[in-house]
Amino acid sequence: MKISLWFIGKNKHDFISEGIKLLEKRIKHYCRFEVRIFKSVKNGEKLPSKELLKKEAKIYLDELKQEDLLILLDENGKEFNSRGFANFIEKQQLQSSKHIVFAVGGAYGFSEELKQKASSKISLSKMTFSHQLIRLIFLEQLYRSFTILKGEKYHND
Fold first, then answer.
1. Other beta carbons less than 10 A from residue 141's beta carbon
2. In terms of DSSP bridges, do strands 69-79 and 99-104 run parallel, antiparallel, or are they unpaired?
3. pLDDT > 70 fraction of the chain, expressed in percent and rounded
């Protein structure tokens, strides 16, 4: 199984980039893993939000293969605790999902088209976080889920 984290636009803060590199290295001990950073929509800050969402969706949809399992990190998605998320990851492994793509939306989230294409949506909190910070928070939870599944000392109940 391969897992990918996709997002649009560079990380704006060095601490986020450094954290992503650290967690990416750790996660690769458990599965094939990659972080894909797509270029921001040209002049996206000047576009109406609906138009920006459509263009961002096109970026993802152009790269997505039919057999990929798309999961959106969305504030209206299903919430898990850390053990529940670990169980979710394990279930995906057992169902032989060849490639799971976790996607982070931009400042306005996701278009309706992308939401309909996704197999599920996951929320990391009822709180709202910046799309920059959620990248790092998600990777920490993904790493944590693998340590839970392997019975390693990292997660404390």
1. 18
2. parallel
3. 99
Contact 121, 77 (CB under 8 A): yes
Q: Flag residues of the chain having pLDDT under 50.
A: none
Closest by CA to 62, choosing from 100, 20, 113, is 113
| Residues near 48 by beta carbon (within 8 Å), at least 6 away in sequence | none
pTM: predicted TM-score of the whole model, two decimal places = 0.93
Does residue 155 lie in a domain region?
no
CA-wise closest residue to 72 among 7, 125, 11: 7
Which CATH number does the domain housing residue 138 bear? 3.40.1280.10
Q: Is 156 within a domain?
A: no
Q: Is the dihedral of CA 8, 11, 16, 20 positive or negative?
A: positive
Is 94 exposed, middle or buried (CB count within 10 Å of its CB: 0-12, 13-18, 19+)?
exposed
Nearest of 53, 34, 51 to residue 102 by alpha carbon:
34
